[in-house]
Specification:
two-stranded antiparallel ribbon; N-methyltransferase activity; globular; binds S-adenosylmethionine; 10 strands; 29% helix; 20% strand; SAM-dependent_MTases_sf; transferase; 260 residues; 8 helices; Rossmann fold; alpha/beta; four-stranded mixed sheet; single chain
Length: 260
């Protein structure tokens, strides 16, 4: 627990400095961060980290908005439903593999006029997933509710900053796009091992630090599953599920209709 935001910033800058010296010139840093909320007052943390990384000569390649459809419902402000993921590279000669993370075209039948007539305008391998990522809570966490133990939120040392584990797909997309087989992926705040287990599942070397023994135990279990090829990883590149309106939960309840 940090006594103040300044103490947190100072500690994180020391960490980033030491990470930087270990990172290869072709390497990347993905820093996933939300807001610090105290007494209803919101401080967006990504701008703080942008300044720190810039001071250490990192280059920002994308500021990705990661949107999710779950979380606390606020009463006196709009409910927070996104976090940011800052992708920095150490230099200009960085790895970026687009093909493994392409997503299906929304309109694959779209055409453009060419000298040979009308031809499909998109890429048959799919489209660039863009810097706005959407993940579905139900699909992401069903079957693996790893944060589901009592009081975890109250005990969490950074509960106002990172309230929960993130879906495999966030880590998986970064790992596939920014690293190659055999590369090393480090997560200094490993939690239940989402990043390290995805790294192992994708034949990278995953290293994680975690000081809470409960999370560490789960992380080790998931790492073992990844090594055995048994980790449930949602296939990257699938579009979030959209309700078709026929589901029971999509119907307006009779009680509300009765209100007139
Ligand atoms: C938000 S969680 C990360 C969740 C992770 N992305 C996942 O999907 O499981 C942050 C984790 O960092 C751990 N942590 C915080 N400070 C740490 C430190 N100085 N050393 C090791 N672990 C730390 C916390 O115990 C917590 O589990």
């Amino acid at each position: 627990m940090f006594s103040s935001l300044d103490a947190y910033k100072e500690k994180m800058e020391t960490l980033i400095e030491s990470l930087s010296s270990k990172l290869k010139d072709t390497g990347s840093v993905c820093w996933q961060i939300g807001n610090h909320v105290k007494d209803g007052s919101v401080t967006p943390l990504d701008y703080i980290f942008f300044e720190i990384f810039q001071r250490h000569n990192f280059i920002l390649r994308n500021r990705i908005i990661w949107r999710f459809n779950f979380g606390l419902n606020a009463r006196k402000r709009f409910s927070g439903r996104y976090e940011t993921l800052l992708w920095f590279t150490k230099g200009s000669d960085y790895k970026f593999n687009l093909d493994p993370v392409r997503v299906p075209q929304i309109y694959p039948g779209k055409t453009k006029r060419t000298e040979q007539g009308y031809k499909p305008s998109g890429n048959p391998k799919g489209k660039n997933p863009s810097d706005f990522w959407e993940f579905d809570a139900k699909q992401s966490f069903e079957g693996q509710p790893v944060w589901d133990f009592p009081n975890v939120k109250a005990n969490h040392p950074e509960k106002t900053i990172h309230p929960c584990q993130f879906p495999n797909e966030v880590a998986d997309r970064c790992i596939l796009a920014l690293t190659e087989i055999g590369d090393t992926v480090l997560d200094p705040f490993a939690g239940v091992g989402t990043v390290v287990s995805c790294a192992e599942a994708r034949s990278r070397v995953g290293i994680g630090f975690e000081f809470d023994p409960r999370y560490l135990m789960l992380a080790n279990e998931r790492l073992e599953q990844a090594r055995l090829g048994e980790l449930v990883v949602r296939q990257s590149g699938r579009l979030p599920r959209r309700p078709n309106g026929n589901e029971k939960v999509a119907q307006v309840p009779q009680e509300w209709l009765d209100l007139g």
